[in-house]
């Protein structure tokens, strides 16, 4: 028994909103998408994006609605990290096994494509229309010029909030009693910078690598675009000795880039122009519960679970929400109350798990990369994994190249960490780290 | 150099708002208090209150503005817990040392008194006036009938948000970037019930005790009022086998009270009437940061840190905020930016500490009171404390009968807990619990 067609509103025309529209159209529903911003296809990009890394979970969700190939065309596979470490030659770390890659996508380019695809499936977009209020039990939306102006009322069967970390739909749910909610900002901000292509349109750095300049409390990354450019992200504390606050003049910025990122000095003028043109953005972990209201309203993607970007899983997690929803829609047909209940029950622990993993990656980056014990531990893990790829799948691979639940990756990662803590206590571990003794120890603890 | 007089708004005429008004008037400021509700002196109480337990921190804050004696007149000292445990005779546990007590106050009676006192100090109250928006950098307030009606604008020098856990003032601060926020509801709700006085006006139960009927997942408490009645609070899960959800008819409620609280069956008709008349309320832990905006806006009391009521410290913590603020006002005179910065830096860790202690008390109540090991541990602690009152001040006393920081009580409590975990591992501890061996062990670990 297929689902009866419903009249469905989606708030937010971002990546999650437009993919959800495609899914819902395939199920035969009528779909209207509201966005307070103009059509991204008609305007310049914001200058506040971090490039996206599509990995297995994301691809799986695209495959389900037959748009995987279309998106691969605008994506570039990254097989390895390229590490730009001071006083060391450039070196590479493969992400996974032969052929395993994450795929670099410009957020703007992808979003435009997804809107095109949703439109060609018959979804109706209402850009520049601001949703100010939601009647949750009746799935009504109210839009208007300003919060205090005359509002227009729309009547729907179901409303999906895909309006991001600062969701207006969730905002309405927050006012109810017994709604759990948290938002935690980190003290590091980010800024988008660009490395332009060579004159012949080729990339200035290896295009199949994720480039990282780790510098302890701050870091630069670069991911390729199909036009030959790289979108870079500078992560830097808001306040302190080396911080966004402390870099206020062109001279200061120039000295900063020259000192810390000498191998991009050829494009330093571009970097500095972007540095002062583009906004500085904050990063937040947002958790909430419940995600749904009766059979009427559901939050999907960042509006339900916003995470810091240090695992590259924000979009992938949102797309996985949609895949899970679609499986439940097939299973429960018109019983939307059950669909929504099972959706939030299944996804909430996984969203919490990837939030935790992402935050840990941030903490590791900012405090542990200079710790020799931590580096030794990582070296031992890698050595053991290469010897026993069947016995020790690293957490990164479980998150990125598998479709098993995030909760499982977190739990197994914690178990591996406990084993490694035992290993690190072995006498003389820094000398015997790649000995048979260590190998036997790990095997015995597994 | 005293402070220059400022034109100050307080949003919220509750206990914290009215005490703050008294303080600010003593400093010579002009004070206007807005409240969206009518004057509590002119209306019936809400039927959703838990009686208050004033302890040392609260009294200290009242003493500072010479209103301690006035409030003592409407308070009743409770020297002990009266434990109503099934199949056991009623027994008593002293709260502290000889003469140490917490003081029972009806929230409504206290609030009326505090408003009288603030008014006689010259504070101006604007009841029934709803604040809908705050201009933070300019300390402007906007009030009106509804969110969409015409608003009136007020211009102030400083605005204090004393408008409780769901603060409108904080709501405006939440919309800024980098504002940390969390709200977590517990799955237990509460309901106010009343035990009326005897016909001659005396109390039906011992009036100098805090009465508790602990029942594992739920519990009834009773605290005396000066009119001879007791305000009771029934704490009960929202959902489940024995829950608010499961008690829907008078018959079910009657059976519930008869089975679990047999010694209040004489007033069962009152309890049942209240049960269906009074609302069921939820309990939340709310944390946020920052608490202030420049030298313009500050949150005080529940609007900055709402906690669950299981340590009886909500009002005391709010009053302590005000005491700390007043000390900083004396120290920094007209430098309100420094006053506010030091206020939030000093109070935030203490607010987090009492939130943690209060939540732990809830967890202990709901999951540990049936655990024989836990009860044995508490018995050992009590036994040791009585032998060595100078060496082992219990956390409860540090929180309730001291004015040392909450953070200190939490840290020392954690240390004591670690010691007790060692003690509980001693072989045969349930037999030797009050032996010299155990005494020596604790002394050695202190």
Automatic annotation (TrEMBL), chains A, B:
Domain FAD-binding: 8-356
Catalytic activity: L-kynurenine + NADPH + O2 + H(+) = 3-hydroxy-L-kynurenine + NADP(+) + H2O
Record key words, sorted: FAD, Flavoprotein, Membrane, Monooxygenase, NADP, Oxidoreductase, Pyridine nucleotide biosynthesis, Transmembrane, Transmembrane helix
UniProt superkingdom: Bacteria
Enzyme Commission number(s) of this protein: 1.14.13.9
A GO BP entry: NAD+ biosynthetic process
SUPFAM superfamilies (alphabetical): FAD/NAD(P)-binding domain
Known pathway: Cofactor biosynthesis; NAD(+) biosynthesis; quinolinate from L-kynurenine: step 1/3
Transmembrane segments: 7-24
Function noted in UniProt: Catalyzes the hydroxylation of L-kynurenine (L-Kyn) to form 3-hydroxy-L-kynurenine (L-3OHKyn). Required for synthesis of quinolinic acid.
Protein name: Kynurenine 3-monooxygenase
Organism, scientific name: Flagellimonas lutaonensis
Lineage: Bacteria, Pseudomonadati, Bacteroidota, Flavobacteriia, Flavobacteriales
């Amino acid at each position: 028994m297929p689902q009866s067609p419903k009249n469905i509103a989606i708030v937010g025309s971002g990546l999650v909103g437009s993919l959800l529209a495609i899914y819902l159209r395939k199920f035969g529903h009528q779909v209207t998408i509201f966005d307070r911003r103009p059509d991204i296809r008609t305007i310049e990009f914001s200058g506040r994006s971090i490039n996206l890394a599509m990995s297995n979970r994301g691809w799986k969700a695209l495959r389900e609605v037959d748009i995987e190939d279309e998106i691969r065309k605008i994506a570039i596979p990254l097989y390895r990290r390229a590490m730009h470490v001071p006083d060391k030659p450039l070196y590479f770390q493969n992400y996974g096994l032969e052929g395993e890659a994450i795929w670099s996508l410009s957020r703007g380019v992808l979003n435009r494509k997804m809107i095109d695809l949703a439109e060609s499936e018959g979804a109706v977009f209402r850009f520049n229309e601001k949703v100010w209020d939601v009647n949750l039990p009746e799935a009504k939306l109210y839009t208007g010029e300003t919060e205090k102006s005359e509002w227009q009322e729309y009547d729907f069967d179901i409303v999906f909030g895909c309006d991001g970390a600062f969701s207006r739909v969730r905002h309405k749910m927050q006012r109810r009693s017994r709604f759990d909610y948290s938002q935690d900002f980190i003290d590091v901000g980010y800024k988008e910078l660009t490395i332009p292509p060579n004159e012949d349109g080729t990339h200035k750095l290896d295009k199949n690598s994720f480039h990282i300049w780790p510098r302890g409390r701050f870091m630069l990354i670069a991911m390729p675009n199909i036009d030959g450019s790289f979108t870079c992200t500078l992560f830097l504390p808001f306040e302190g000795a080396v911080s966004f606050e402390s870099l206020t003049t062109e001279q200061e910025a120039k000295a900063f880039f020259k000192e810390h990122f000498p191998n991009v000095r050829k494009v330093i003028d571009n970097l500095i122009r972007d540095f002062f043109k583009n906004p500085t953005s904050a990063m937040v972990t947002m958790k909430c519960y419940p995600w749904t209201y009766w059979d009427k309203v559901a939050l999907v993607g960042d509006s339900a679970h916003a995470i810091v970007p240090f695992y590259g899983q924000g979009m992938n997690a949102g797309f996985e929400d949609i895949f899970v929803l679609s499986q439940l829609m097939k299973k429960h047909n018109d019983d939307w109350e059950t669909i929504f209940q099972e959706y939030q029950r299944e996804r909430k622990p996984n969203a919490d798990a990837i939030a935790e993993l992402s935050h840990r990656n941030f903490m590791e980056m900012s405090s542990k990369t200079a710790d020799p014990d931590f580096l030794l531990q990582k070296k031992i893990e890698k050595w053991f994994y290469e010897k026993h790829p069947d016995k020790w799948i690293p957490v990164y691979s479980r998150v990125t190249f598998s479709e098993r639940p995030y909760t499982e990756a977190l739990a197994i990662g914690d178990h591996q960490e406990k084993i490694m803590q035992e290993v690190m206590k072995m006498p003389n571990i820094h000398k015997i780290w790649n000995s048979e003794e260590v190998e036997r120890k790990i095997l015995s603890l597994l």
